[in-house]
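Sample A.
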Amino acid sequence: MSALGLLLVGAAAAGIGSPATLAGAGAVLLAGSSGFVVGVHRLGRPSHGERLEARLRYRPLQVLARTAEAATRYRVSWPGGAAVLAYSTLNWLLDAGVLVLAFVLLGLAVPWHVLLFAYAASQIAAGLSFLPAGLGALEAGLVGGFLLMGMNAGTALAATLMFRVVAYWAVAAVGAVIFVAQTRQRRAGPPGGARSR
C-alpha cells in the first residue's frame, strides 16, 4: 500500500493523470486496503475459518484455507498497523534519498518532479520479481520510469547503476566483510588462545 501510495504521489508530482483520476485511484487503494484488513480480521475468527474450510471440497483448497486462517492469528492493533505503514513509507522515502544521492555523486541535476514516480515504479517492479532484491526488474523499472518521463537514456542508466551500487552492492559488500571477520574471530577463539568449555 505504501509503495502504491508513493507511486500515486509521484505521478501527481510528475503531472501524470488528472487530479480527479489520481484522487479516485487513491480512494480505491485506501478502500481496497481497508477492506482487505477487515476481511482478514473477520476470517481470523474461528467460526469463519472453519465454515470456509467446510465449504471447500478439494483438499488443496482446504489446506490453503487452513493456512490463511492460521496466518490471520498474527494480528496487530490499528495503531500498530498505522505505525507499520508509517515506518514502511519512511523506509521507501529514505531509500529514494539514496537515488537523489546517486544523481549528486554523478554530478547530474536531480529530476525532482519525476524522481518519486520512477522510484516507486521500480520498487513495484522489484516486488513482482522472483529474483533476490528484484535484480533486473528494479533496474528496468527505474530506467523505464525515467525514460517514460523524457529523461536521456544514458543519464537514466548511469543514475540507476549508481543507485544500485550504493543502495545494494555497497551494503552487501560491507555485510560480507563483517561476516567474514566475525567468522574468523569465532574460529580463532577467545584472546590468549584459551578456549572456553
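Sample B.
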Amino acid sequence: MKKFIILLLALLIPIIFFIGAMTLISQTPSFYSYEFDKLNTIEEAKIKISSQEVSRMMVDYIQGKRTDFQIQAEVNGKEQNLFNTKEQQHMEDVKKLIQVGNIVSIIGFLVLAVLYLWLFKKEKISLWTMYKTAVGACMVFLVGLILASTVDFNAAFDLFHEVLFANDLWILNPKKDILLMLMPLKFFIDAFVLSLIMVTGGIIILGVITWRITRSRNMFY
C-alpha cells in the first residue's frame, strides 16, 4: 500500500502542478496585460484601448463575473465591438475548460495533501522517497512537454485544441479576428514557459518542506 501511495503521489504531482499553473495563469489579468504590452499586439491590431481594460474583461468573463465576452474600442478610427460571434463562442468553450481545470486543480491538490499526510503519519522517511520519485517523474513530464513544444509548438498547440475542443471554433484568422491578433502563438508560448517555471518552483518548495520534515531522520537511505 505504501509503495502504491508513493508512486501515485509521484505521478500526480507534476500533472496537478501543471494544470494548476495553467489555470492560474489563464485567470491572471496582469499576465494578459504584460503580454499585450510586451508583444505590442493592441497597437499592431490598430486598437485604441488599454491593455488592462481588455485583460480585466477577459478574466472577468472566464471567472463568471460577467456574462458577455465583449468590449467596445476604436478600431481603425471606428468605434465597434471587438469580438465577433465565432470568437465569443470559442471563448465560451475556453471558459468551460478553465472552470474544469479549476475543479481538477482543487480536487487534485486536496488528494495530494491527503496522500502526503497519510505518508507523514505512516512513516516520515517515506516522504523523501516519494519526493525523489516525484522529481524523476516531473523531469520526464517536463522534458516530454519541452521536446513536444520545441520540435513543433504550432503542431502541439493544434493537437491540444483538437483533443480538448469538440468543434473548430478555435481555428481563427490572424488577419481578421481580433482575439488571435491580441493573443498570437508567442502569447501561448510565454504562458507555457511560465507554467513550467511555476511547476519547477512548486517542486522545489515541496522539496524544502519535505526535507524539513524528514531532516531529523537518515533520509538518504
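B remarks: The CA atoms of residues 79 and 109 lie 45 Å apart. The two ends are 20 Å apart (CA to CA).
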